[in-house]
Amino acid sequence: HLSSMRTPTAMIVGLVLCPCGLLLTFTGTVAPNWRQVSHISDQPIDFVLEQGIWDMCSEQRSSHDRLCGQADELGYFEQVPVRVAQGMMPTSLAFTLLGLAVAALGVRCWQKEPRHLVAGVAGLVLFISGLLSLVPASWYTHELWTLPAPAGGTLVAGYSLVLSYLGSCLEILGGLALTLSFHHCCKE
């Protein structure tokens, strides 16, 4: 009968949310836009500085002239929240890839029964990967207005930071969904 062939809903949820989370945290990690600084003194009104965890780009909005690799004169990259993000975001991505590999082994859609213990372990790894990216995103957000910025600038959170947040939350939820597989082990 079909019921034993079905993959549990929680596993499907985990396997949908976590790759989406990976995509968002990857974009958040590599795109240089954790914070935007606009209305900087001695700069044109449409000049925007975008600060990421690896790079800084400036853009003239009217002409779309964009220059990356801007010099870090204020020691922005030396700041602890930025350094922590540089370490934890790639670590989180590695954990997510590991968790998804383990999840693929555990869920095993091509076999009659999923391996609940393996899927549960994958869920824990993915949950941890979500926390590993949530911590730097939260800390950076908390310090957003205290990190060094050009004089007179208006600071706002950039899309990379928002994507990192969303990705982290999807990984945490997806990981939790997969950890529900432990419930099956206990029943057995």
TrEMBL record:
<feature type="transmembrane region" description="Helical">
    <location>
        <begin position="159"/>
        <end position="182"/>
    </location>
</feature>
<keyword id="KW-0796">Tight junction</keyword>
<comment type="similarity">
    <text>Belongs to the claudin family.</text>
</comment>
<feature type="transmembrane region" description="Helical">
    <location>
        <begin position="92"/>
        <end position="110"/>
    </location>
</feature>
<keyword id="KW-1133">Transmembrane helix</keyword>
<feature type="transmembrane region" description="Helical">
    <location>
        <begin position="117"/>
        <end position="139"/>
    </location>
</feature>
<keyword id="KW-0472">Membrane</keyword>
<protein>
    <submittedName>
        <fullName>Claudin-23</fullName>
    </submittedName>
</protein>
<feature type="transmembrane region" description="Helical">
    <location>
        <begin position="12"/>
        <end position="31"/>
    </location>
</feature>
<dbReference type="GO" id="GO:0005886">
    <property type="term" value="C:plasma membrane"/>
</dbReference>
<keyword id="KW-1003">Cell membrane</keyword>
<dbReference type="Pfam" id="PF00822">
    <property type="entry name" value="PMP22_Claudin"/>
</dbReference>
<dbReference type="InterPro" id="IPR006187">
    <property type="entry name" value="Claudin"/>
</dbReference>
<dbReference type="GO" id="GO:0005198">
    <property type="term" value="F:structural molecule activity"/>
</dbReference>
<dbReference type="InterPro" id="IPR004031">
    <property type="entry name" value="PMP22/EMP/MP20/Claudin"/>
</dbReference>
<dbReference type="GO" id="GO:0005923">
    <property type="term" value="C:bicellular tight junction"/>
</dbReference>
<keyword id="KW-0812">Transmembrane</keyword>
<keyword id="KW-0965">Cell junction</keyword>
